[in-house]
Design goal:
mainly alpha; flat; 11 helices; 0% strand
């Protein structure tokens, strides 16, 4: 059922047809991009679950071929993400291998990753955020190094990605936030660290974990509204002034008072 739901939204992006959904746009935009890059033309109706795709090229959105950077690929990335995260936390190769094997043979992950769903995209960014956070913590002994900046920035990017797919991504924002608060508290209690240096640590985290994710999250909506410029089923959720900007709408190019 969900594949019918989100596959249709991927088609909306390819056809540039405006729609409204309760979830943020990133996941559906990526599904549409994967379909576009793999040759899908956005014509399959996605009317009800179980309809045959027939000649329609749906494989790119599922990630089985051509556009390999999608659902199946993102679901596959969970295994190395789990391996690297557990390895960093435990420094135990058997523990890391066990975590990877658990995901490799998890029926739920395998099933979710082979369809046109938001779940593998969401899990990719969630686990990416956790891995980046853990990697950044391991660089704590060399702050402001290239690797430290890279992993701190990647944490912010993955936070934006997780929240941009579904609002449930806010839970990983909470996790990273608590980790950051504990980290800053330890730095504040370090009497060998000057207040100026502590201010630099605080500013770096504000830039990478607050400003960067918010900028990326806003940019997702900018792309969303720029791409969907044709009238569609989501018109009625927005004002007349907004509808007048949509090609094909009855109010298109009509002068609407503020």
């Amino acid at each position: 059922w969900d594949e019918t739901h989100f596959g249709k939204m991927g088609s909306y992006y390819i056809n540039r047809t405006f729609f409204f959904d309760v979830h943020p746009p990133l996941g559906k935009m990526l599904i549409g991009l994967a379909g576009y890059l793999s040759g899908y033309d956005g014509t399959f109706p996605f009317q009800k679950p179980g309809d045959r795709y027939e000649h329609h090229n749906y494989m790119g959105m599922r990630g089985v071929r051509l556009c390999s950077l999608f659902c199946a690929f993102l679901g596959s990335c969970l295994v190395p993400f789990a391996y690297l995260t557990v390895l960093e936390l435990s420094k135990s190769l058997p523990a890391a291998l066990l975590a990877a094997l658990i995901l490799i043979f998890d029926t739920g992950c395998i099933t979710l990753s082979q369809y046109i769903l938001l779940d593998p995209i969401l899990m990719f960014f969630l686990m990416g955020a956790v891995l980046s956070m853990v990697k950044c913590n391991t660089c704590a002994d060399r702050p402001f190094s290239t690797s430290w900046w890279f992993w701190l920035s990647m944490t912010g990017v993955n936070l934006a990605g997780a929240t941009g797919v579904k609002f449930v991504g806010l839970f990983v924002v909470l996790l990273v936030g608590l980790n950051t608060i504990c980290d800053l508290w330890d730095l504040l209690g370090n009497l060998s660290l000057s207040l100026v240096m502590f201010g630099k640590h605080l500013l770096a985290r504000v830039l990478c974990l607050i400003v960067l994710p918010l900028a990326l999250y806003t940019a997702m909506f900018a792309v969303h509204f720029a791409v969907l410029n044709k009238s569609g089923p989501g018109d009625g959720f927005f004002s007349s002034a907004f509808q007048s900007q949509l090609i094909g709408n009855n109010l298109h190019n009509v002068s609407v008072p503020e």
